[in-house]
Specification:
The complex is a heterodimer of chains A (122) and B (479). Chain A starts with a strand and ends with a helix. With 122 residues, chain A is α+β, with helices and mostly antiparallel strands. Chain A has four helices and six strands. Chain A has helices at 36-43, 91-99, 106-109, 115-121, and strands spanning 3-6, 10-13, 18-22, 52-58, 66-72, 78-82. Chain B has 479 residues and is an alpha/beta fold. Chain B folds into three domains: 1-164, Ubiquitin-like (UB roll); 172-300 and 432-470, FAD/NAD(P)-binding domain; 304-429, FAD/NAD(P)-binding domain, CATH 3.50.50.60. Chain B is built from ten helices and 28 strands. In chain B, strands 8, 9, 12, 13, 14, 15 and 28 form a seven-stranded mixed beta sheet that branches. In chain B, α7 packs parallel to α8 (345-354). The two termini of chain B are 35 Å apart. The chains are: A alpha+beta (122), B alpha/beta (479). The A-B interface holds A 1-3, 13, 75-76 and B 259-261, 263, 290, 442, 460.
């Protein structure tokens, strides 16, 4: 049973939280046409690593706000807790983010507006 | 050895002398296997049975070999009994942990029709025809008959029987708590740790599985801590702790779970030791505790020694024998053989001697020196150096042993085998730290070549091992 330090409320028992699964999965934009197989990477594929894992948690029985947690799945050590929409600051968590297979997927690349279309339509 | 005419209020033939922890003015009547016995307030079921010279308390799982009382605490592997009647019946409880109360009703297990005459014991004679998996390999054919075989086989399987009524009538309760320091184990080091922590102002919870604090000290004679007798030292500390508002004392409470981030689960037996259970109290209470720091002071378990027949009733751990003599005033035998590889067991020899038993010490070591050995020799007790027990024989209780001289590595017999009569074997193979909680908390273990045991090394959670479970005190080097 973990103790998770909610950035808004402080350390609380795991029972107060809900885990939202893997963090940093960007949705491909509609104008960026990608194949079904590439879209499946976004929609279905989730990591289950042995070691450091970046995941989202919600303080569902408290302030009900979301935040990110870098947790070691082997030792259950919580390395870093950082806000939604930002990236981890600790070296180990940073490396985990950068080296994730997801960074190279077509789905993730399609999550940022493509330059040609952005210039053309607006 | 058990007198068949023993009736209600029978004399406790093995009760030796008055000891502080047994109130001889408060007799307690209880029933074991339909026979009435009498013990005293302060007894466990095991000590009360031993006081009445009952060693045979069960049958083994497959071969129905006789089973007796081997230890004096939660490490008991053999004396598993069924407690209570009807819906209250509970199987596989250790007789060594059950405090007796007026009207206690207990039964032995895994025997038909009676403990002394058990039909299943035929398996023991025919053991060569019952290899592992025998039932499943033999009764496969014809397939249509399996359902009939199964009925018989399933009936023979398992040790205890659960209550006939599956609706538990008792009430249970759970509670959550937080503390700065949780001390698991209320022996000498656990008490000292709790006291020091409490004096610093920390919120302390001290849990111990026994009905009173003191651990191994409760079973020792003439031990002093500083200048004070050990047990007055214990009661002084317990009094001091009980008066502190930041301390919670939990006797009869086992720390059984060590989960992530120092989350521990404890089982408190609130009313199990009372003859009638007050309606406002639960039978047991589950504690869920989040601790900043955990101090593991679980102590150590004595190791048995290996010889043929070392599972017979009457073969006990040396430390347990000492506990029965000093804590319960019960001498478990009259002709005792102490077999050991360390000095600590010589204390047992002395205590047995003082309790009036005839004692022979069999030491696996070729030579032994030290004050305890000298004290035993001066008491006129025979010591056989460099000898080992090869085998123990007996039907319902050990009656005879074979002793032979052995070489230094205790692997070969170097001389003639000697036969001795005995009704008690006290064995000691040294102490092994109780590393259960440490291991549950993903702590690492390290093999200690000198002490022949695994000792705790790196911890994973914020916890410390102290005392005997960290091999700091009392752990004696064999050979």
């Amino acid at each position: 049973m973990l103790i998770i330090t909610c950035p808004f409320c402080g350390p609380r028992d795991e029972v107060e939280f809900a885990c939202g699964g893997e963090a940093h999965i960007a949705r491909p934009l509609a104008d960026n046409k990608i194949s079904d197989a590439d879209f499946a990477d976004y929609l279905f594929m989730r990591d289950n690593p042995k070691g450091l894992f970046l995941e989202r948690w919600r303080h569902s029985a408290g302030c009900r706000r979301w935040f990110n947690v870098a947790r070691d799945t082997v030792s259950n050590e919580i390395v870093e807790i950082y806000p939604m929409g930002s990236l981890p600051a600790k070296t180990a968590a940073k490396t985990t983010y950068k080296t994730s297979w997801r960074r190279d997927t077509a789905a993730e690349k399609a999550a940022t507006p493509s330059r040609s279309k952005a210039g053309g339509s607006k | 050895m058990v007198s068949r005419s023993a009736a209600s209020g029978s004399p406790q033939t093995q009760r030796q002398r008055a000891v502080a922890r047994i109130d001889q003015n408060a007799p307690i009547n209880f029933t074991f296997d339909g026979r009435s016995y009498r013990g005293f307030a302060g007894d466990t079921l095991a000590s009360a049975l031993l006081a009445n010279n009952v060693h045979l308390v069960g049958r083994s799982f497959k071969y129905h070999r006789p089973r007796g009382i081997m230890a004096a605490g939660s490490e008991e592997p053999n004396a598993l009994i069924r407690l209570g009647k009807g819906a209250y019946a509970e199987p596989n409880l250790r007789a060594t942990q059950i405090e007796i109360f007026e009207g206690l009703y207990a039964e032995s297990q895994n025997r038909t029709p009676s403990l002394k005459f058990d039909i299943g014991a035929i398996n023991s004679v025919l053991d060569r025809f019952f290899p592992a998996g025998f039932y499943y390999k033999t009764f496969m054919w014809p397939a249509s008959m399996w359902m009939r075989y199964e009925h018989v086989i399933r009936h023979a399987a398992g040790l205890g029987k659960v209550a006939d009524d599956h609706n538990d009538p008792d009430r249970y309760e759970k509670t959550h708590a937080h503390c700065d320091i949780l001390v698991a184990g209320g022996g000498a080091t656990g008490l000292m740790a709790a006291l020091q922590a409490a004096k610093s102002g920390a919120r302390v919870i001290l849990a111990d599985e026994q009905n009173e604090f003191g651990g191994w000290l409760l079973g020792e004679a003439d031990i002093k801590i500083g200048d004070v007798p050990a047990l007055s030292w214990v009661s002084d500390i317990v009094t001091e702790l009980a008066a502190m508002p930041n301390v919670t004392l939990l006797p009869r409470t086992t720390v059984f779970g060590y989960l992530d981030h120092n989350y521990l689960t404890l089982n408190e037996r609130v009313t199990d030791h009372l003859p009638s259970r007050p309606a406002h109290l639960p039978r047991q209470r589950l504690w869920k505790i989040r601790a900043q720091q955990v101090i593991i002071a679980q102590g150590a378990h004595e190791r048995p020694l290996v010889f043929a027949g070392n599972d017979l009733p009457g073969v006990m751990l040396a430390g347990a024998v000492r506990t029965y003599i000093n804590r319960y005033g019960v001498c478990p035998g009259q002709r005792a053989i102490v077999v050991c590889n360390n000095d600590d067991a010589y204390r047992t020899a002395l205590d047995l001697h003082h309790a009036g038993a005839y004692v022979v010490v069999t030491d696996l070591r070729a030579t032994a020196t030290g004050p305890l050995m000298r004290a035993v020799r001066d008491a006129g007790i025979e010591i056989l150096h460099g000898h080992a027990i090869i085998a123990a024989y007996g039907t319902h209780r050990v009656a005879r042993v074979e002793i032979a001289p052995v070489d230094d590595s205790v692997t070969a017999i170097t001389g003639d085998i000697d036969h001795r009569d005995c009704d008690l074997i006290a064995m000691s193979g040294g102490l092994s730290p109780a590393v259960h909680l440490h291991s549950q908390a993903r702590g690492k273990l390290q093999w200690d070549d000198a002490k022949l045991c695994f000792r705790p090394s790196a911890t994973h959670e914020p916890s410390f091992n102290i005392g005997a479970c960290a091999m700091a005190v009392l752990i004696l080097s064999p050979v």
